[in-house]
């Protein structure tokens, strides 16, 4: 969700402006876009974010706008890359004045729906044919009151990468299936540490490693994302072990010395580099991070499994893939149909193929040609991301609770500055503050329980 995978990188490069040109008002041929653009001049502005998730996305978008040029020569698209740190606040300012881009980007579910609730977003399902949208994956993340409000582009999930050579040195056997139980994970960590190997490496200086642990393990006692929303709106307490008891397990991991000592001195991506350099046996990994590890360590030395199973709720068996960033048409745009047509164009066969060639990230479309994935470890990740139900739990909390509760709670554990009980109390305190200050937002979140 919305800080997690999505915020791996820092700020994006400076703005990208490309003229897109194309044909007439007539509908294009199949595979060339949606319902077509207007005959007169059309100027669209796209506040775009994706490069931090998927390096290469900026160049792909520039090429895509140029390709759209051949279909709609009367359309000019200005692509304005957004900063990770101001993605939400910048659009809040735009929404307050009912002016700004025609197309915008936000992380899925909570961030998208928060702007739906303030009337800043037009439902994409009102603008794109159902026969097209049926191919898009993970649209459930932005579905509300029977409508889909934003378009996906790609899927990102998190796996647990491991170094086969270090496992062999410590006498650790990988799981026979897709994952370990939590006890098996801890037993492997103990063997690795006894062999002088750091079992798990990461970085939580920016707080995102803790957010990844929450998204992957924190919900394993829950049966659905709506269970989490019960605590968000105050029907349940975050101090209940069902919601934050998992911090006790993370605390044991840190206190037993199973995590690198400098975890609080490194940002998330810096921590993963330790694994890519062979300095740790395991690390959480995205598809792109895994590809780098395979390249640097060698394909025969890297394996990947799903995160360990700790809880007994239904979400313990769910995958963690998310569409991450979502693209939507703004309510104030004077060219909503043309904006939606461009978003539909992103899902044409040529653009899907070009997307993977540029980024190595799986497209959120069932027409994506999986044979393009040739690295076995990435094939395994794609299987994890497209099999069974998928929930990225961080998408299902308000941004304030994420930034002021989720992120510092994990830092409390990794730094050793507080206990699991302190982490749970922090979540509840921040939730109470948010509920008191934003009763209108609470009412909107309660609608997700209906």
Rounded mean pLDDT is 91
- SSE topology string: EEHEHEHEHEEEHHHHHHHEHEEHHHHHH
Strand content is 5-15%
Unreliable stretches: 1-31
Number of domains: 2
User: What topology, given as strand order, has the largest sheet?
Assistant: 1-3-2
Describe this structure in words.
This protein has 450 residues and is of the alpha+beta class. It has two domains: 5-156 and 323-373, D-Maltodextrin-Binding Protein, domain 2; 159-317, Periplasmic binding protein-like II (D-Maltodextrin-Binding Protein, domain 2, 3-Layer(aba) Sandwich), CATH 3.40.190. Helix content is 41%, strand content 10%. It has 18 helices and eleven strands. It has a three-stranded mixed sheet with strand order 1-3-2, covered by helices on one side. Helix 1 (57-69) links the parallel strand 2 (42-48) and strand 3 (75-81). The longest helix has 18 residues, at 420-437. It is globular, with a radius of gyration of 22 Å. The model is unreliable at 1-31 (pLDDT under 50).
């Amino acid at each position: 969700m919305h800080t997690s995978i999505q915020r791996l990188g820092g700020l994006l490069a400076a703005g990208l402006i490309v003229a897109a040109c194309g044909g007439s008002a007539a509908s294009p041929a199949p595979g060339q876009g949606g319902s077509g653009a207007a005959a007169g001049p059309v100027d669209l502005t796209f506040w775009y974010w994706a490069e931090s998730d998927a390096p290469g996305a900026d160049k792909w978008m520039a090429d895509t706008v140029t390709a759209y040029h051949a279909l709609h020569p009367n359309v000019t698209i200005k692509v304005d890359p957004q900063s990770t740190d101001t993605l939400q606040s910048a659009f809040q300012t735009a929404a307050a004045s009912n002016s700004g881009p025609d197309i915008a980007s936000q992380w899925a579910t909570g961030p998208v729906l928060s702007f739906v609730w303030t009337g800043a977003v037009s439902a994409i399902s009102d603008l794109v044919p159902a026969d097209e949208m049926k191919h898009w994956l993970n649209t459930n993340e932005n579905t509300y009151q029977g409508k889909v409000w934003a378009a996906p582009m790609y899927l990102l999930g998190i796996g647990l990468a491991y170094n086969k050579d270090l496992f062999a040195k410590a006498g650790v056997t990988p799981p026979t299936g897709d994952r370990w139980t939590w006890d098996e994970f801890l037993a492997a960590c103990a063997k690795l540490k006894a062999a002088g190997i750091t079992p798990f490496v990461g970085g939580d200086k920016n707080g995102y490693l803790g957010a990844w642990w929450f998204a992957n393990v924190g919900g394993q006692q829950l049966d659905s994302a709506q269970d989490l929303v019960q605590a968000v709106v105050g029907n349940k307490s975050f101090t209940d072990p069902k919601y934050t008891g998992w911090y006790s397990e993370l605390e044991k991991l840190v206190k037993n010395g199973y995590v690198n000592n400098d975890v609080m001195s490194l940002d998330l991506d810096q921590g993963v580099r330790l694994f890519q350099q062979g300095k740790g046996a395991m690390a959480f990994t995205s598809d792109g991070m895994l590809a780098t590890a395979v390249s640097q360590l060698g394909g025969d030395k890297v394996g990947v499994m799903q995160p360990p199973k700790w809880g007994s709720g239904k979400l313990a068996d769910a995958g963690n893939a998310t569409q991450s960033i979502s693209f939507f048409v703004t309510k104030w745009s004077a060219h909503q149909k043309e904006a939606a047509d461009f978003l539909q164009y992103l899902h044409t066969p040529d653009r899907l193929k070009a997307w993977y060639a540029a980024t190595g990230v799986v497209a959120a479309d069932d027409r994506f040609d999986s044979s393009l994935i040739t690295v076995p470890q990435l094939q395994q990740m794609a299987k994890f991301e497209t099999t069974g139900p998928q929930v990225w739990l961080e998408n299902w909390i308000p941004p304030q609770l994420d930034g002021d509760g989720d992120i510092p709670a994990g830092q409390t554990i990794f730094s050793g500055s507080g206990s699991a009980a302190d982490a749970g109390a922090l979540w509840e305190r921040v939730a109470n503050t948010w509920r008191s200050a934003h009763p209108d937002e609470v009412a909107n979140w309660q609608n997700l329980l209906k």
